[in-house]
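Section 5: illustrative case.
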């Protein structure tokens, strides 16, 4: 008789958002011991930290000597650099070795800047279980002049596994402090993982298809039968908390594009508010931005897009509203106009080496649209790119709505 197995979870990334996700996931692995192993591995890019004398973790014997961040997390159960003052469950295990952190894990949760994901996949390929499954918490898409690709599908193809996506109206610090919010997880369960290769109602299952409606060429390895199934119910149990309400859908396109393109709209809203216009002006920009987001999805993903995702889910309007009223793309674009400098200057002086996702997304999307000769069909996206290049003035925004 084959011994029953449990799903082991690894969170790849330990920044502000990554540590927050590790916290809530570890709470759930502890609460569902029939499905998950209790300990959650969290890969931490190792660095040295110095604890201030007013830190509750300060040790006079150590003093000002640098300490390994992973050691501090595992000893004091707090990510003192990226999520300070938040107590982590004791079953979050910080691991400086990426390869060791993903070893024997059946669930990989990706949560790091999207520009690093290619290198991360190269490092762990061949070191993960062939039947591992992923969830990408990375808001964005990879875009070149030649193509646009959902990050969850990029991960899936690179590692030859299936990967879903999480996105919503989520602010990491609020969630870490257990202030209630909601999110959306898109997971289109591979047919090989369904019960006996059929849907739960016994109907035959079609071949697994990607976001463009094409049959996925990667030959997925089924999850062994001695593991619990991995479907919407199981992922809901892994992520849902009293303070974090999860809705499960199968629309990876809507969830992924909503999480990426709203950053362009958030920049526009910041520009508008920095100029001194009011909430009604921002609302007009949000409305136009949502229309262009849906139009983009219709044009480039007509086979699988489910438009109701944008209207009904947190990954749609919810994320758009939060991003355009309180998140950092909005905040720093507003600051740029108020100070009379470029947003690139604000990024350089205010973000401590971090990058604004909206800038890179706007650049990539605009280049992609220009290469296809359809840039004029997306006037708000074009306008934001022009402001970034300092070729268009914020005062020109109302002209967009008079056409």
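Designed sequence:
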């Amino acid at each position: 008789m084959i011994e029953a197995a449990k799903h082991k979870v690894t969170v790849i990334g330990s920044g502000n958002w990554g540590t927050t996700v590790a916290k809530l996931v570890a709470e759930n692995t502890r609460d569902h011991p029939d499905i998950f192993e209790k300990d959650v591995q969290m890969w931490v890019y190792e660095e040295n930290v110095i604890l201030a004398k007013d830190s509750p973790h300060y040790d006079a014997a150590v003093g000002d000597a640098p300490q390994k961040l992973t050691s501090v997390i595992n000893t004091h159960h707090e990510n003192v650099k990226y999520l300070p003052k938040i107590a982590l469950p004791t079953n979050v295990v910080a691991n400086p070795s990426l390869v060791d952190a993903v070893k024997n894990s059946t669930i990989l949760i990706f949560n790091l800047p999207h520009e690093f994901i290619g290198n991360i996949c190269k490092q762990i390929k061949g070191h993960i279980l062939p039947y591992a499954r992923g969830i990408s918490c990375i808001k964005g898409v990879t875009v070149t002049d030649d193509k646009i690709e959902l990050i969850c599908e990029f991960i899936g193809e690179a590692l030859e596994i299936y990967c879903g996506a999480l996105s919503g109206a989520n602010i990491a610090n609020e969630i870490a402090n257990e202030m209630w919010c909601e999110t959306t997880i898109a997971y289109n369960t591979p047919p090989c993982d369904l019960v006996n290769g059929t849907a739960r109602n016994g109907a035959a299952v079609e071949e697994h298809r990607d976001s463009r409606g094409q049959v996925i060429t990667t030959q997925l390895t089924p999850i062994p039968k001695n593991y619990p199934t991995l479907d919407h119910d199981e992922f809901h149990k892994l992520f849902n908390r009293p303070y974090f309400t999860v809705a499960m859908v199968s629309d990876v396109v809507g969830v992924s594009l909503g999480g990426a393109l709203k950053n362009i709209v958030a920049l526009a809203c910041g520009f508008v508010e920095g100029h001194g216009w009011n909430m009604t002006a921002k609302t007009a920009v949000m409305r136009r931005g949502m229309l262009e987001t849906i139009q983009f999805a219709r044009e480039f993903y007509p086979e699988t897009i489910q438009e109701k995702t944008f209207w009904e889910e947190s990954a749609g309007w919810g994320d758009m509203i939060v991003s355009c009223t309180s998140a950092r793309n909005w905040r720093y674009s507003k600051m740029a106009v108020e100070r009379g400098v470029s947003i690139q200057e604000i990024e350089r002086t205010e973000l401590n080496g971090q990058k604004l996702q909206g800038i890179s997304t706007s650049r990539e999307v605009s280049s992609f649209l220009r290469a296809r000769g359809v840039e004029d069909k997306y006037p708000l996206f074009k306008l934001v790119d022009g402001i970034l290049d300092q070729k268009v003035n914020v005062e020109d925004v109302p002209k967009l709505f008079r056409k």
